[in-house]
Amino acid sequence: MFRLTTSPIQSHALDAENAGGFVSFEGKVRNHADGRKVLVLEYDAYPELAISEGNSLIAEAIEKFGLVGVTVIHRTGLLALGETAVLIQVAAAHRREAFAGCEWIIDQLKFRVPIWKKETYATGESEWVGISDGRSRPTQDAGFFERQMRLPEVGPEGQAKLQNARVLLVGVGGLGSASLPYLVGAGIGTLGLVDGDSIEPSNLHRQVIYKFDESERLKVDRAATFAKQLRPGVKVETFPYRVDQSNVDSLVAAFDWIVDGTDSLGLKFLLNAACRRQGKPLVTASVHRVEGHLLTILPDGPCLNCLFPEVPPEKCVGSCADDGILGVVPGLFGILQATEVLKGIL
Amino acid sequence: MKVKVRFFAVLRDRAGCAESIVETQAGSARRFVDELIESKQLGLPSPLIRIAVNGAFVEDQHELHDGDLVVLIPPVAGG
After folding, report:
1. From chain A, which residues contact B within 8 Å (Cβ)?
2. Who among B9, B13, B78 is closest to A109 (CB)?
3. ipTM score assigned to the predicted complex
4. Residue A303: active-site member
5. What is the SS3 assignment for A8?
6. What letter does residue A198 receive in the DSSP assignment?
7. A4 strand-pairing partners
8. Number of Cβ atoms within 10 Å of the Cβ of A253
9. For residue range A133-181, what is the model confidence (pLDDT) as tens digits?
10. For FRET with A285, which of A36, A73, A213, A268 sits at 20 to 30 Å CA-CA?
C-alpha cells in the first residue's frame, strides 16, 4: 500500500506469519547536500498520480521479488532536519528478497513517482533537487581537473567547454559503461543515459562498472550512482527505456553529442537518421567477438548510409549472446568513443 | 480546443502559476508540451518532462482532446 501524509511518519513492524525477513528503511532529512548546509526540505507531490504510480510500483516489487507485504509512506509539505521523509517496509519469506525488494523500491520511487524535493540552504537560497537544465552550473570540482587542465589542448577554456557539454549515451552496456567513467572524469557537465535493461551476471565480464550483487537492478540507475560517486558535480539524466522511433528525436534534440552503444543494427540506423536530421554529431561503434569498428559521423560528413546504403537485416551479424565477446573489446571501443567525443568538444 | 494544464515543482515556479487553461491546436501531447516550453519559458529540455493526461502517464504521440487535464512532470526526486 502506498500512502502520502502531511503528518510525521510512525514506523510499525509489518505482521506477516509467512515472512522470515523484514526490512524497514527510512529516508531522512539530512543537514547537508553537495557541501551546502540544508535548513529545511519541502516535498511537493501530484497526489493522484503519485498514489497510482506508487501502488503499481509496489505490485511490481511483489511480483519481482516474491514479497509478502509492502508499505510505503511518503511525507509531503515542509520537513525539518532529522524528520522521516519516506518509510519503506518490506516483508518476504527470506532476508535476501526483503533487502533487494526494499532497495529496488526506493531506487524506482526516486525517478518514477511524481514527488519533488526543494532544499533550502543556510545561505537563504533554495533549489528543486534533481531538476536543472545542466548549463552554467557552478563546478564544485576544485582540483579534480588539475592534471588535465595542464594540457595546452584543454586549459580553463577547454574545461569550461566540457562542463557546458551535454552528452547522451544510448545504451550503458559494454560500450556505454566503458566510455562513461572517462567522460565523467574528463568533466562533461551533463550525461544522459538511455537503457531499459537490468544488470545480468553474464554482463559483468565486460560491464565492469557494475557489481556482482547488483543483478536485476536497472543499469541506468547503477551507472548514474557510479558517475556521482566518481564526481559528485556531474549532472546525470536517466531514461530507463529503450530508444525507439517515438522517443529518438526528443532525446537527440536535448543533447550536443550522441554516443551509440546499442547492440542493434536497426537502432544504429535510427540514431544515424535522427542525428542527421538534427545536425548532431554521432559516435557509433560495434563489437563482434574479438574485433570492432568505430565511426564518428559529423553533421557535414558521410554517414552510416554512405557506408551501408541498405539497412542490413537484424541479427545478420550475430550478437554477444550468440557469438560470445571478449570483455576488453567493448572496453577498448567504448574508451575510443569517449576519446572521439572529447576531441570533438575541445 | 482548450485543455487545463497543471504545473508542479520547478515548472510551477517558472510558469508563475499552478494551473492554467490553454488554447491549442497541438496534434500530440509532446507537441503541446514543446509549445508550452516556448510560450511559458519553462527552461527545461522537453525530453526531461514526462506527460500525464487525466491522471495517467502517456506516450509522446497521445492525442489531446478538449477539456483534458495535462500535467507536466519534471524529473522527480522523491525519497
Report:
1. 27, 43-46, 48-50, 52-53, 74, 85-86, 106, 109-118, 128-131, 133, 237, 239, 246-247, 250-251, 253-254
2. B78
3. 0.81
4. no
5. coil
6. B
7. A74
8. 15
9. 443 333 445 578 888 888 989 988 888 899 899 999 999 999 999 999 9
10. A213
Residues A222, A217: Cα–Cα separation, whole Å: 7
For residue A337 the three cell numbers come to 568513443
A320-332 burial code (b ≥16 CB/10 A, e <16): beeeebeeebbbb
Who contacts A14 (Cβ-Cβ below 8 Å, separation ≥6)?
Answer: A22, A69, A71, A89, A90, A91
Which three cell numbers mark A57?
510500483
**Four-residue CA torsion sign, A53, B8, A106, A237:** positive
Q: How far is CA A122 from CA A37, A87, A117, A142, B33, in A?
A: 5, 26, 16, 22, 35
Per DSSP, what are the bridge partners of residue A33?
A: A36
Closest CA to B40 of B28, B56, B24, B52: B24
Phi-psi group of A236: left, alpha or beta (phi > 0 → left; psi -120 to 50 → alpha; rest → beta) = beta
pLDDT per position as a tens digit, A25-82:
999 998 887 778 888 889 999 999 999 999 999 999 999 889 999 999 999 999 988 9
Q: Which three cell numbers stand for residue A341?
A: 567525443
